[in-house]
Design goal:
Number of domains: 1
Number of strands: 0
Structural class: mainly alpha
Radius of gyration: 26 Å
Strand content: under 5%
Order of helices and strands: HHHHH
Length: about 180
């Protein structure tokens, strides 16, 4: 447990700040590429399998998008963990992944980075917050498209039901 004196003597180093910004930028590049790819592939999936306004192909599109988002986030976590492993912050890869995953999700961890890298704990969490915000936007886009499609299908069914239930109107004589 660090003493109060240790906490007062910590000074963020330029190297730590520079690496933090580089890693954050790499996270955003990975995330941006991943989100565009997610939207592209889910759109291609929809065009191929979910052309009719059916429920299962539509929900499958959301599931596919969710899986792709998870893969992107795991790649980002692995990138940060790779840096921590490279800088020998943890004894093994498993500990680096575990720590980084908990920081990325902002859960926090009982593990800590060495004192001279501790600012990066905040940077990992910031990358995770930005990634989750962006991912939420992509998932909302997929969900809104699905919901709109399902509502159109329900409206069409209700309209068809009303047409069948409505009495036929008498024909008007032709005045011509």
């Amino acid at each position: 447990m660090p003493t109060q004196i240790d906490q007062l003597t910590y000074v963020a180093r330029g190297e730590e700040i520079a690496w933090g910004f580089v890693l954050l930028a790499l996270s955003l590049i990975i995330h941006g590429f991943g989100m565009v790819l997610t939207l592209h592939l889910t759109n291609a999936f929809k065009q191929r399998f979910a052309t009719a306004e059916r429920f299962l192909p539509g929900i499958a599109t959301i599931i596919l998008g969710s899986w792709m988002i998870m893969v992107v986030q795991v790649v980002e976590i692995a990138m940060w963990a790779g840096f921590f492993q490279w800088k020998q912050c943890f004894a093994n890869w498993s500990a680096a992944i575990y720590f980084t995953g908990l920081q990325y999700t902002t859960v926090g961890s009982t593990l800590s980075l060495p004192k001279h890298w501790r600012l990066l704990e905040i940077m990992v969490s910031s990358a995770g917050l930005m990634g989750f915000a962006w991912s939420t936007g992509v998932l909302m886009t997929l969900a809104q498209n699905f919901q709109s499609q399902q509502l159109r299908a329900l409206d069409a069914l209700q309209f068809a039901g009303r047409r069948k239930a409505a009495p036929a109107l008498p024909e008007r004589p032709n005045s011509g």
